[in-house]
Design goal:
The chain is an alpha/beta fold. It is built from 24 helices and 23 strands.
Length: about 600
């Protein structure tokens, strides 16, 4: 007679109504409870195994669940948190204003729909420590669709946030002196112009060049030169007000933006102060270094209505100061045409340089840091002027861009580089790739893609052998258009490289969006490796790691020492380019290099 409850579990008994109804109800309830328990255990295991923190509340916004990750993130145990208001356990502030941030739970309960945190939100843990987080909150409904509470899923993005801050700072500041760079200066000049227009006031711009820096840099070395520039930067900052901006433009050139309501007498006092401060000897690595400066001054709005014109006017005045004995300052005057005459001469020469075949290409090899083999080459433009001799791109390319000649010049460079690569290949000296820099005007030309296809077809070079190098700034001018062009080039089989990475936007999100193959680390960061500047290659290592993580070929530019090569190799940087391996070479010299490389 003692059959037990299990004896009634057969399907036949239930179907034949042989089990008393009350017992049937008990058995069915037990089966449901067991199934619910199993599901709950599985859910608990799943929630505790994921990396994201999960936190649940009831209808009143009180905590009723935390997974292990949420306990670790908030510092609250499940037992201590249970029943407490969400604002006590999940305490949020705005990362910028540091004011309390409205909790998304209240919004979810109010609107019965999913909500997300505002960007730059900080979680205050139980012990008072802070973490940047990203999250989403959603309503919880029962089987009848009734709102019963909320669930929040969040994770720590502090590391990514710090990297973003560092990269943003890096994009706006000079790597050596930590002064604002051109990007940040232009932004502040735009603000100054807007304010001066509104108030009917004026401001001044000072363009400085160190008079004998090149001699010091060449005779004592770059490390001494760098420390001297850092000393100069400190003294310049000490000569101006906090509302002013001291910016390094590159090399030994600095630009100072003096805030509004600066009159000639005020600017004169500042210029005199700078000249006197810089004239005091600088103690650098047991050297007493003497350096002077020539300063050009332009005034808004008299000497220019926009940032570019103001900088050009101050630059012109600076060269006039150099012509007048150096170690002095000059205000811009309309008759200062020294720079303009040179510019006009260069522009006139450029008009005929192509037809007179005055342009030539030099080639610099890229080296696999692991094998030591040449993997490719970058084509570098030179202008062999019949009177002035070799002219480097920095002197004439900006003028070619301004006068619209950069597009035909760029097409010639691309065609000549592809043709030469094909000649090397036919001679049995094939490279894996030939890299060509593409300017902004070329890249955004309507027929750019057609031009690339035509050149590849005419020269017979395989598309996979061509690598186009494009700077971050060019790509970021129009992200949607850039992405579309890059995608079409990618479909052709052309390799794509982001050039001078770190000097522009350095946006990780866009870097993932663009279909690129190669990441080239700007030489300014490579030069920092092994110096006393501070980060000692940390940024380079981070960029290499990021590039490898995105499965990009990472190329370090400007490799000049064995120490730099060793560091890059240890960080798993794939390729290097720089004077350590070879200077840019003419065709004949580069051909000999290909023939003899590795034969010794």
């Amino acid at each position: 007679m003692q059959r037990g409850a299990q004896g009634y579990l057969s399907k036949g008994h239930f179907e034949n109504n042989l089990v008393p109804q009350a017992l049937r109800n008990i058995i069915q309830r037990k089966m449901v409870e067991e199934a619910f328990y199993k599901d709950k255990v599985r859910a608990e295991i799943a929630l505790n195994s994921i990396g994201d923190a999960v936190l649940c509340t009831d209808m009143f916004g009180n905590i009723d669940y935390l997974n292990i990750a949420a306990e670790n993130m908030t510092g609250w145990s499940r037992e201590d948190a249970k029943g407490r208001p969400i604002r006590e356990v999940f305490k949020l502030i705005n990362g910028t204003t540091r004011k309390p941030e409205r909790n998304p739970v209240a919004l979810v309960l109010q609107h019965d729909k999913a909500m997300g945190l505002n960007a730059d939100t900080i979680l205050i843990r139980r012990d008072g420590s802070r973490a940047h987080i990203e999250d989403s909150a959603a309503p919880i409904h029962d089987w009848d669709g009734q709102l019963t509470g909320t669930v929040i899923v969040f994770h720590d993005v502090s590391v990514a946030h710090e990297m973003t801050i560092k990269m943003t700072h890096l994009a706006q500041h000079d790597f050596l002196t930590n002064l604002p760079n051109r990007v940040l200066l232009n932004d502040r000049m735009a603000q100054a112009i807007t304010l001066a227009k509104r108030n009917g006031t004026q401001f001044a711009l000072l363009f400085l060049d160190l008079d004998n820096f090149k001699y010091i840099n060449d005779s004592l070395g770059h490390e001494i030169g760098d420390k001297l520039l850092q000393s100069v930067a400190q003294r310049l900052n000490a000569c101006v007000r906090k509302s002013d901006t001291v910016s390094r433009q590159g090399g030994d050139e600095f630009v100072i933006l003096l805030s509004e309501n600066q009159y000639d007498d005020d600017v004169t006092l500042t210029a005199d102060k700078i000249i006197a401060a810089l004239a005091v000897p600088h103690s650098v690595a047991a050297h007493e270094l003497q350096v002077t400066t020539s300063i050009g001054i332009s005034i808004y709005p008299a000497d220019g209505q926009d940032a570019d014109t103001l900088i050009k006017s101050a630059d012109t005045a600076m060269y006039y100061a150099k012509e007048n004995g150096r170690n002095n300052y000059q205000f811009f005057q309309s008759n200062m045409n020294i720079r303009m005459v040179e510019r006009q001469s260069i522009e006139a020469g450029l008009q005929h340089a192509l037809e007179r075949q005055e342009f030539v290409l030099y080639y610099q090899p890229k080296i696999n840091l692991k094998t030591g083999m040449i993997t490719g080459a970058e084509a570098l433009l030179r202008w062999m002027h019949p009177e002035w001799g070799m002219i480097l791109p920095a002197r004439f390319v900006p003028i070619a861009e301004d006068c619209g000649l950069i597009v035909p010049i760029g097409r010639w460079v691309l065609r000549e580089a592809c043709a030469q690569a094909k000649r090397w290949k036919d001679a049995g000296l094939a490279l894996m790739s030939i890299a060509v820099n593409i300017s902004a005007q070329e890249f955004h030309q309507k027929n750019f893609l057609e031009g690339v296809c035509a050149i590849l077809s005419d020269t017979g070079l395989e598309t996979r052998c061509l690598q186009l190098e494009i700077t971050e700034g060019v790509l970021m001018r129009n992200v949607a258009s850039s992405t579309a062009i890059l995608q079409k080039l990618k479909e052709l089989g052309v390799q794509l490289a982001v050039d001078d990475f770190g000097t522009g936007y350095s946006s990780l999100s866009y870097l993932k969006q663009f279909p690129v193959d190669v990441l080239k680390i700007d030489q300014t960061f490579v030069h920092d490796i092994g110096t006393a500047i501070g980060d000692d290659g940390t940024i380079v290592g981070a960029v290499i790691g990021m590039g490898n993580g995105l499965r990009l070929t990472v190329v370090a530019e400007g490799v000049e020492t064995e120490g730099q090569r060793a560091f890059l190799k240890a960080q798993h940087c794939e390729e290097g380019q720089g004077y350590l391996f070879s200077r840019p070479l003419a065709v004949e010299q580069f051909t000999a290099l290909l023939e003899n490389w590795g034969s010794a």
